[in-house]
Amino acid sequence: MSELTQLKLDAKGLSVLYVEDNDSLRENAAKLLSKIFDTVYAAEDGKKGLEDYKVFHPDIVITDIKMPNMSGLELAAHIREISLDTKILIMSAFDDKENLHKAIDIGVSSFLAKPVAMKELVKELRKIVKEITDINNKNIFLANIKNVFNYQSSMVLMMDESKPVVANQILLDFFHLKDVEEFINKYTDFGTLFLEHDGFLYNTKDKNWFDEIQSNEAKLYNVKIKSAEDELKHFILKYQTIPDKQGYGVLSLDDITELNILKLYDETQNDDKVQDSSSILKLLEVIKNNAGKLELHNYYKGLSITNSAVVKDIKEESIVLQTSFLQEKAVQFEKKTLMVSELLPHVVECSELVKIGFESQNIEFKDVHFVQESAIMRKTVRLMPEENTKVNLFIADRKYQGEIKVEDISLDGVKLNLSSLPAGLQDEEKVIVDFVFYVNKKPLLLNVHAKMFKKIENRHSFSLVFLFEFEKGKKSVLVKYITNRQMRLIKEFKGLENG
Prior knowledge:
Layout: H1 3-10, E1 15-19, H2 23-34, E2 39-43, H3 46-56, E3 60-63, H4 72-82, E4 87-92, H5 97-106, E5 110-113, H6 118-148, E6 155-160, E7 163-167, H7 169-174, H8 180-186, H9 209-214, E8 220-226, E9 232-241, E10 248-255, E11 273-274, H10 277-289, E12 293-300, E13 303-314, E14 318-322, H11 325-334, E15 337-340, E16 347-357, E17 362-371, E18 390-395, E19 398-399, E20 404-409, E21 413-418, E22 430-439, E23 442-457, E24 462-469, H12 475-495
Parallel strand pairs: 1-2, 1-3, 3-4, 4-5
Antiparallel strand pairs: 6-7, 6-10, 8-9, 9-10, 11-17, 12-13, 12-15, 13-14, 14-17, 15-16, 16-17, 18-19, 18-22, 20-21, 21-24, 22-23, 23-24
């Protein structure tokens, strides 16, 4: 890429005012500058140049010295009274020390002697454009970073598209670098630092990390990076665009290595519960600080109820969530909830309901823990039938004589609660289950073969799960019932909004 082409790319969005009393020189120079800058203004003397400056406020002023009405040095002095940031380049055939000293005193950026070679002009303009870009980047960073991230405790990087332009000291210290230029030279693609890890953000053959975060702004990601000391660190990454500054965004990385939860993404836990509430609450604190969203999952008589939620407060042993009114109603029914986020290694179960505030839409829970398996993994809809549903169980052609009721039913099987365990009942044993459902107050009969799948011993009863083995045509009866039951539960649950 030629220097002129690079200058045009770097100067995008910048404007220049050219002041020259020679008509021919002014016209030719304006044409040349128009090939580099998006906006070019031209004035025939210093007086007109000052008037144009006050109207258009160009980023760069290029001026001759000797002109009628007002000299270039007078023009520069007036501009300096208005702005210290405008870059001023003086071009003159009068190469004398007196004018050079005056230009330096005024604060002129550059001084070139006529005739100016194209290569020399391009070199000087590139230097000026870089100075302007650096100042703009720093101003954008200072103006926006405090409103978006707490850069005192996070690594923060401002990006122009995928190119880093400003980094805070914490990030530079992490990589043992002195400035962002050294960072850019060493790491042309920041995403190459993200180590491969299941469920984490990193470059793949099919997806670039920056394309992913740009299309999912404000989403939280897990990333794994090695420090300059070759230590593995676990971060939460977030990307936020800067309003009114197209292409610019701020990337923050919160170090959560000390939570020591990285192993939860790697290991398969044998226990149903991973009892580490303090680490979970600290992780949820990070999600709260980054305004991350969660999903709450509940079941109303088997009907799945899901809504988004945010973390409002983290206390010593509890968490306060804010969610929709209907989700609160589902929580009120179950007395617990399941919490899901792509940031979490597993589903989080909140088991102990402390209180519900329907006006504030806040819910407080204790006993927060990970669970490896949960109802969210269900492949089929499992519903609680009406209380008047009747059921009989036949084992080896003998009817079970104890108390029996249906806990839930799906197209695949049924969970029955028995007052006592039938003698000799084994896994995989064949049984017959008779149902009498009611649809619109009319009985619906179903007789189906099943086999024993699982036994759960409760405090005063037993729960037995049976998998159905349908004969041809009989499954349609159950489909009809479950469809009808689901529709009635939806209507019933929506009615709770007024209750």
